[in-house]
Automatic annotation (TrEMBL):
Record's protein name: Glycosyl transferase 64 domain-containing protein
Localisation: Endoplasmic reticulum membrane
Coiled-coil annotated residue ranges, if any: none
Family that this chain belongs to: Belongs to the glycosyltransferase 47 family.
Native species: Anguilla anguilla
Top-rank taxon: Eukaryota
Amino acid sequence: MAKTGRSTRMHDVTMTTWSMRGMTIRSCSTTPPSASFLGARLGSFRFLESLQAACIPVLLSNGWELPFSDVIQWSQAVIEGDERLLLQVPSTVRAVDNERVLALRQRTQMLWDAYFSSVDKIVLTTLEIIKDRVFSHVSRNKLMWNALPGGLLVLPEYSTHLAHFPFYYLSLGISPGQEFTAVIHAVSPLVSQSQPIMKLLQVVSKSKYCSQIIILWNSEKPPPPKSKWPPMPVPLTVTDGRRKTTSRFLPHVAIETEGVLSLDEDTVLLTSEVNFAFLVWRSFPERIVGYPPRSHFWDPVKQVWGYTSKWTNEYSIVLTGAAFYHRYYHHLFSQYLPPSLRALVDRTSNCEDILMNFLVSSVTHLPPIKVAQRKQYKELPNLQGVKGAPWSNPEHFTQRQECVNAFASWFGYMPLVHSQFRLDPLLFKDQVSVLRKKYKDLERA
């Protein structure tokens, strides 16, 4: 990874705390911090060790080229000194203020996680840099490589503009658009005008933020003619889902809005609930924002990850049967994740919502956001010819347990993050005038 035209040496000193204003110097190793480690070859493994430990490498090696230096701005992660002026190094290190120490350490963690934490990432980073050189007209810029979530998760095939990616909105001071596209996953044949999907269409289409509705038709029977669908104030498109569960997360060209509302055909919501969740998502456009929560846990007896649908104070998953997210995650789902994981989802017709949560949490390092919902639902009777709920299948829960562990194995760690954060509409159940309540329908439900 290092290149030079002459023989060179690298001394690296990595420190977790710094000697500043009387503080004690401590080293990440047992060697005194003033000591230097002479590399036996051009690149010392201690350099990567220091990144992994969130330490700041102090490099003394004139002419040594750091790995991936054509895209990584190493000045934001390391301190470089002149090997001919070793006596000046202690004073240079002590002159670094606390704010820059924190910034440098945060950057070392970002670079380690994004590019050096596995052999696969090192190889993939190399290949992506080469691709950027070959296809320079659609290459990533320096900010994409040096800001979270890193260049490997910014697909230039999607866009080369920062404003098109949800995780740059905050730094750019922009917000997503004020409309969303609803994508409804339909697996049941349409045999009655009283089926839940018909009510759902009416509820969603009444939202003032809804731009269009797309129905992904994954039923074994062909979709009904256009005349069978109810008239609505927004365009309705029925698309062949090819009977694949992962089709709900394909980057459909018909989706023109940044916000996507993913829905199951039997989801029961109010228009006011849809509106509130969308406004919350516009404040957190890089996350999944929705209603049904789930959680994961570590089983110390079985030594595996567990999955639970019990309602507790904590959650780490928001099911995509009723959730908002940015359309860019459709591109990551279909182009970044390996075909083996998507094949697992299609084979079991299960776990696509868990996989999407894994993906988004691995990108953001943040949990999803749960918004308020009604606590009581009426049980809808099963109609003739309509499939029952998938969770009625005894294998459904077992499959989801297995999926959690399969996904964690591929990611190499557990990216899901627990949270207790919930957002309710203002004055949701306060004893105030109904005229002051923006979401008064939620209280009556």
